[in-house]
Specification:
Blueprint lengths: L1 E2 L9 E7 L6 E7 L10 E12 L9 E11 L4 E7 L6 E8 L7 E8 L3 E10 L4 E10 L6
Antiparallel strand pairs: 1-2, 2-3, 4-5, 5-8, 6-7, 6-9, 9-10
Length: 147
């Protein structure tokens, strides 16, 4: 139960009562409590603003490379995860997570490799210790070219 205290302190007084099964006695505890809440902004929004295919020579073309330019709002991320899925975004094909260092402005380029041509769903998640935000896009990879 909570009762106001009789002195000038405005903190609530907490009285707890416990049953003692051995002797049928009650134990009374009186005191004050305090608590604090920290509100953090978190990562509010992620946007993929550009997707660029990296041109490679035929001898290098084992994988198609695509650069994703990503921006975000809110706090600065400390890690990025990219999930590559089928075009319906239902069946995951691969996932890569990397730590990142973003200083003043949340603008980063993420390079990912695609083993074969096709249409893929890309989920890019930026995260920090307290939040995550996600952006998704469909990409068509055509043997070294993407649209």
């Amino acid at each position: 139960t909570t009762e106001p205290s009789s002195d000038s302190d405005s903190s609530p007084t907490v009285e707890s009562v416990e049953d003692n099964p051995d002797g049928g006695c009650h134990i009374y505890r009186n005191g004050y409590y305090g608590s604090s809440i920290d509100v953090v902004e978190g990562i509010l929004e992620v946007n993929i603003i550009q997707m660029t295919s990296i041109q490679m020579t035929e001898s290098q073309a084992e994988n198609s490379l695509v650069d994703f330019v990503v921006t975000c709002q809110g706090s600065l991320p400390t890690d990025v995860c990219t999930v590559v899925s089928d075009p319906t975004c239902q069946v995951s094909k691969s996932m890569v997570c990397d730590p990142i260092v973003v200083t003043d402005e949340c603008l980063l380029t993420i390079r990912r490799a695609f083993e074969e041509p096709g249409t893929y769903c890309i989920n890019i998640t930026l995260g920090d210790d307290t939040s995550q935000a996600l952006a998704s896009a469909l990409i068509s990879v055509n043997g070294g070219e993407s649209t």
